[in-house]
Design goal:
- By secondary structure, the chain is α+β, with helices and mostly antiparallel strands.
- It has 3 helices and 6 strands.
- It has a single domain, classed as Aspartate Aminotransferase, domain 1 (Alpha-Beta Complex).
- A hairpin with a 2-residue loop joins β3 and β4.
- About 30% of the residues are buried.
- It comes from Pseudosporangium ferrugineum.
- InterPro entries: TfoX_N (IPR007076).
- This is TfoX/Sxy family transcriptional regulator of competence genes.
């Protein structure tokens, strides 16, 4: 999956201050990890956000959010957010939501 370089730079800027944050090419796209856990990823112009299984239903009520699918499989605990709605505040909110979930996972 190709990705939007401008969106990648914006995500990178938001995650850069966090210890243990990095980006990594994966599946033809770009994933962003915090503390070794995949946190968000770029899918063309959209943002894949790891919200966790318990928060998925609520996250899907947000503007621009839809289920994240890979082929016929729905990715449990992930949502895909339309790049069109990702102004600076909205992007920061989604990144924080993903970061909050990932912080509950055991260390890698």
């Amino acid at each position: 999956m190709a990705y939007d370089e401008t969106l990648a730079a914006r995500v990178r800027d938001l995650l850069a201050p966090l210890p243990g944050a990095c980006d990594k090419r994966m599946f033809g796209g770009l994933g962003f990890l915090t503390d070794g856990h995949l946190t968000v990823a770029l899918n063309h112009d959209d943002l894949m956000v790891r919200v966790g299984p318990d928060a998925t239903a609520e996250a899907l009520t947000r503007p621009g959010a839809r289920p994240c699918t890979m082929g016929a499989r729905t990715m449990r605990g992930w949502v895909l957010v339309d790049g069109e709605v990702l102004d600076d505040d909205v992007l920061a909110g989604w990144i924080e939501r993903a970061r909050a979930f990932v912080s509950t996972l055991p260390p890698k």
